[in-house]
Write a structure and sequence with these properties.
single chain, 308 residues, alpha/beta, Arginase, Chain A
């Protein structure tokens, strides 16, 4: 395992889009993190950064989309997902580690389809999914119609066909997927993940076992995949008292300091392929608590773990 991020080549891939969520604020998250010094923090750890950015098409502004607007959102999401999958795949092939800054969590479709496609010849791809929600609805089960509640289903081969087909239909192996921090979800999406054999660790179990033990198990599950593994961080996994700047907060989440400690050095682990962060909404973060937390989470991934 590398001792540090020094000399590591990182492709910082920015997708400032809120097309999959209920409001546009998440599209502002990536640039807010850059203004707050994320790039400088990563360079201070010795990483070499290349910044890749996409300017997505304008998002429909109506809070309740008509069928026509819903279609335009899905077309915009497919276009941005195709772009992101290509950027992630190309970065991995260049020997870079892609670090994706998304808007809403629908960005995960492009990130992880691209990663799974890039490493497909080596074997299955594993993933740790840190989220207050399961994000495993399909168009037949979603109560909101919002695509940010569906990416995990798509990545497992369910849901909308045109999104499932991206990156040559690359998928995540459910045996190597672990969801951590869930506490707000519907029975239909929980049933899908249970049927597929996905390990879901809810907040009640985390309180009983402790986050270090839970995260150690999550790493074992994801890193057992032969092709590689990654981590997707939805900022709403944190307790909203400490990180209020998200679109869909859920009470009683993870403590920020505990998650920072649990993520320390993860990107330096063997066969680690990519991290992703999504759902940071600066418009709901008047005291910049969430911005600080998100920056610390991402930099912790590349910081050497402290040995007691």
């Amino acid at each position: 395992m590398p001792a540090s991020a020094r000399g590591r080549s990182i492709a910082l891939i920015i997708l400032p889009s809120g097309v999959g969520g209920p409001e546009p604020g998440c599209s502002l998250g990536p640039d807010q993190l850059l203004r707050a010094g994320l790039e400088e923090h990563l360079r201070a750890l010795g990483a070499r950064l290349a910044i890749i950015r996409r300017h997505p098409p304008d998002r429909p502004r109506e809070p309740h989309a008509t069928p026509g607007l819903a279609t335009s959102r899905r077309l915009a999401l497919r276009e941005s997902s195709e772009w992101l999958a290509t950027m992630v795949t190309e970065a991995i092939h260049r020997g870079q580690l892609p670090l994706v800054l998304g808007g809403d969590h629908s960005c995960a479709i492009g990130t992880w389809k691209g990663a799974a496609q890039a490493v497909g010849k080596r074997g299955a791809f594993g993933l740790i999914w840190l989220d207050a929600h399961l994000d495993a609805h399909t168009p037949l089960t979603t109560p909101s119609g919002m695509m940010h509640g569906m990416p995990l289903a798509v990545l497992l081969g369910h849901g909308e066909r045109r999104l499932r087909s991206l990156a040559d239909s690359a998928t995540i192996d459910p045996r190597h997927l672990c969801v951590v921090g869930a506490r707000s979800f519907e029975t239909e999406e929980a049933a899908l993940l249970q049927r597929l054999g996905v390990r879901v660790i809810e907040m009640s179990e985390i309180r009983d076992r402790g986050l270090p033990d839970v995260m150690a198990q999550a790493v074992r599950i994801a890193s057992a995949a032969g092709g590689g593994w990654g981590v997707s961080i939805d900022v709403d996994v944190l307790d909203p008292k400490q990180a209020p700047g998200v679109a869909t907060p859920a009470a009683d989440g993870l403590e920020t300091a505990a998650l920072i400690a649990a993520l320390a050095g993860m990107a330096l682990e063997n066969n680690f392929v990519a991290p992703e962060l999504a759902e940071f909404n600066p418009l709901r973060d008047p005291h910049v608590l969430t911005c600080i937390a998100a920056t610390r989470l991402l930099t912790s991934l590349f910081a050497p773990r402290q040995v007691a």
